[in-house]
Structures are given as C-alpha cells and as structure tokens.
Amino acid sequence: MSRPVAIVTGGAKRVGAAICRELAGAGCEVVLTYRDSEEEAHALARELNGRAVPLDLDNLDDVERVGVSLPTELSRVDVLVHNASVYGPTPLTSLSAEDALRHYRVNALAPLLLTRALAARLRESALPGGGAVVAMADMHATGRPRKDFAPYSMSKAALIEMVRTLARDLAPRVRVNAIAPGVVAWPDEGYESDRDAQEAYLKRVPLRRAGTPEDAAKAVRWLTLDATYITGETIRLDGGRWLA
After folding, report:
1. Fewer Cβ atoms within 10 A, N terminus or C terminus of the chain?
2. Phi and psi dihedrals of 53, rounded to 5?
3. pLDDT per residue over 19-39, tens digit each?
C-alpha cells in the first residue's frame, strides 16, 4: 500500500512545519499548502520528500479550485490538518467589516469548504480509525475571551462548532477534532512579540512556560493516527492557562 497522505494548510513555517515533520516521521506522505512562504514551503517539501501547493485561504475561488484538483492528483487522502489562520488584535474603535469577514473566511469558511471537497477521499482512508481531520483552534475561543480580539475569537469559535458538526456529518468513516492551544509559538512581530507582553501572559500559565510547535505537532499526530475512538472533541494545549 502507498503511504498515508496528510494535507497540512499553512505548513511552511512555525507550528505548521513542526506538524509536517511529525507526520512525515510517523510515515505519512505530506502535502503542505502555503500562501506567501514559497521558498520555505518548497525547501520543507524537499526535506520531507513531499509536495508544496500554493493556496490562499482568503480567496474562496482558490480554495474551491484546490479542493477540486488536489484529490485527483493524490493516490489517497487520509489526514487533513487545518493549521493556517489569520491572527491579530482588532479593537472595536478600528474594526471594519472586512476585518471580520477576512478572519471568518480564512479561519472558518475555508476549512469547511476544503473539508467538504476532500470528504469523499477521507472516507476511503484505509487507516485503522478511518480518515482524520484536525483543526487548530484557540484556547481563548473556548470561553476565555481576550480583549480586542472579537473577529479572531468569533472565527475560531465557528471553527470549533464546525468540528462538532462535521464529527457527526462525516461519521463513522472520518473523525474530526480540534486542538486549542494557548501559546505554542510567539508571534514573530507585532502583538506579543515583545518580552514584557510574553512574561505577562506566562504569569497566568500554571506551568510557567510557553508550549512549543513540537508540543502541538505531537498532539496532532496522536489525534490523527492513534486516537481512533475520539471525535468531535476540542483538546486544550495551554499549560493550564484555562484554569487561571
């Protein structure tokens, strides 16, 4: 049999790249998508003997195109990881309708459309637990809202509801779950990229440290390849931040 095929959106850098490496190490053939990080995406694809595919999740026509073409180009589809997202503060004083719609398109609607397009192939998966979908959500969208993040939090809450709904729609051949991180990778720039903001956040984390991209990647591997009797769940990966 051919190797299991895992598709990871936003897989070129940071958490996405860690997920790609973890799934490749577990025996999967990895197909990663990218928007701007073309050089990094193709370098990682070469490293893992996988494929890199351009995809702009903010362009729903592009999502539909890739959703139609990609399944026919692959020998099989077993795992789909919705990792790519838009993140950033949007204070009410400067919030626009387009801000909110962009968050919704990228973080919720595009994952829904891509899952729909790949559902038939995921149902055919020969993995012991069937096909698997994992969405990267956010701990703060599960009842710990943050000030100035309304569009982002609303879009991630919609993503979590997508997980619960599709877990029923795609059962019994496809499992659908979410991971809700706290911090597993600090932003490279902008909000919370400075040390003072990071230290303030970590004071509210019982484990007193940030997670790592590898922590997230291991959780994805477990949910997709090992947790064959779990579906419709959102697992917090936050060092206990939910409790504080």
Report:
1. N
2. -130, 125
3. 999 999 999 999 999 999 999
Helix intervals (H) in the chain:
14-25, 38-48, 60-73, 97-104, 110-123, 150-169, 195-202, 213-221
For residue 177, the cross-strand partners are 134
- Choosing from 34, 87, 152, 201, which is the catalytic residue? 152
Closest to 107 in 3D by CA, of 84, 80, 132, 134: 84
- Which segments of the chain have a pLDDT < 50? none
Alpha-carbon distance 12 to 125, whole Å? Answer: 25
The pTM of the full predicted model, rounded to 2 decimals, is 0.96
- C-alpha gyration radius of the chain: 17
**Dihedral in degrees, nearest 10, Cα atoms 144, 234, 158, 30:** 130
Q: What is the reported pLDDT for 191?
A: 73
Is 152 part of the annotated catalytic residue set?
yes
CA dihedral 96→102→103→106, nearest 10 degrees, is 180
Could you tell me the two tokens for 241? Answer: 């931040």
